[in-house]
Design a protein that fits this description.
single chain, 8 helices, 74% helix, globular
């Protein structure tokens, strides 16, 4: 039950894209209909899960017992760069496609390692963050199709997009988790 509530929390109420702002600038201008994007998303998922697992294990079993858990961002950076470079090299050699991405993946790894209590919990949080980004994609596609008819400039599109995101954040914040606790409503 604790894993289900953690999953729901990071998908809905603490959506990594909406509440933390992870990847909003990249998600707004991606083209989702090319075959290269499937390779791109696959590479991101593999590098995030491997980095999260390794960094969580190192943090829980080495840094915390030695009481040096404050340096976990540096450890995460080192292992993420190492794993991301290896996966990028494999993808580039096998498919010839460049799939470089750093910021979104690294921030998801940092968020999942910092807010987890175990390796399984860290994997669940990173998967929830990726799912929250994935749930935002149909909204963005629908918004792009709606705005595309207006023949507007990029600046107008981005302004309207961030207003849409602000409205979604307000809806999530007003709904929040009050409905889970019946005594709050009374």
């Amino acid at each position: 039950m604790i894993f289900f509530s953690t999953f729901l929390y990071y998908v809905c109420f603490a959506s990594s894209a909406l509440i933390y702002g992870i990847g909003l600038n990249r998600v707004a201008d991606l083209d989702y209909y090319s075959d290269k994007k499937l390779i791109y998303f696959g590479k991101i998922i593999i590098s995030i899960f491997l980095s999260t697992l390794i960094c969580s294990l190192i943090t829980n079993y080495f840094l915390v017992p030695l009481n040096i858990q404050e340096i976990y961002p540096i450890v995460c950076l080192i292992f993420f760069v190492l794993i991301n470079s290896i996966v990028e090299g494999i993808v580039r050699l096998t498919t010839g496609v460049s799939t470089t991405e750093f910021v979104i993946s690294f921030i998801v790894v940092l968020l999942s390692v910092s807010e987890s209590t175990s390796a399984l919990n860290a994997i669940l949080i990173s998967g929830s963050c990726l799912l929250s980004l994935g749930l935002l994609i149909p909204i963005i596609i629908a918004f792009k199709k709606r705005i595309h008819n207006d023949e507007s400039k990029l600046e107008t599109y981005l302004c309207r997009f961030f207003i849409l995101i602000a409205i979604i954040i307000l809806i999530i914040s007003s709904f929040d988790i009050m409905w889970l606790n019946n005594e709050v409503i009374k």
